[in-house]
Amino acid sequence: MGLLDDLKKQAELVRSQQTSQHELRAENIRQVEEKMRQSFQYLNELLKQLAVLKPVNPGVFSLPGIGDLKNLGYAESFIDYRKKRINDREYFDSVSFFIRWGSDQILVIERDMPAAAQKVRDALFGYRLKFEEEEIKGQRGTATKWRFTAQSAVITDVTFQAEHDRGGLVVTAKNLERMGIIDTFAVPVAEFDEALLEEFAKTLLGQPGAFRKYRVAPGAR
Question: What are residue 135's DSSP bridge partners?
Fold first, then answer.
């Protein structure tokens, strides 16, 4: 076999590998697009039903050193999506929505030291809770106590992100089950279906569900 024949065989192998990679990516894009569209349709319908039913989330959102937010009911929600162009076609890139849970209950926190009051102040800002602060002064006219009153409300932010190259969907959710925590879930496209969306909905509503098994450890991606 001559040099030219050897080079032809090597070139043919490279072309074959490139074709296989191209076909695999095209199939990933097709499947991910199908699942993203399904996700938007399901979630959009879910939020419409929640707006009518206004369920109470059974979960307890703990604010360490401050208190707990519980018995929060559905207040409002919004959903939207973004697309991006791949090979001259538009595909779903992300689906994002939020749910605001709330109640009429007022959280009252009192502190009698400036440093302790500042920790509460920083925490409430960090949790993005609306609050009012009152300084209670003693006989000498100096502050002796700080009283904070905060609204009981939690906003759960969720994004379904398409991963066309990997062939999967990544779900990120803030305040899903724990206050101030961002959870990440990675789901292969082959395992993503309406049954799994229902498991996610259970998690969203504070119920036991199988979606949690897809949670990714921090720093794992």
Answer: 146
Which tokens in the block code for residue 47? 């939020």
Q: For the chain, which residues make up each domain, given as ranges?
A: 3-103+154-214
Q: Residue 101, Cβ neighbours under 10 Å: how many?
A: 24
Residue with tokens 């994002």: 96
- The rounded Cα 135 to chain-centroid distance in angstroms is 37
**Strands 89-111, 67-69: parallel, antiparallel or unpaired by DSSP?**
unpaired
- 125-161 residue pLDDT tens: 999 999 999 999 887 778 889 999 999 999 999 999 9
CA distances from 183 to 201, 204, 219 (A): 15, 12, 11
Q: What residues pair up with 207 in beta bridges, in sequence order? A: none
Length of the chain: 221
- Residue 19: pLDDT band with limits 50, 70, 90: low
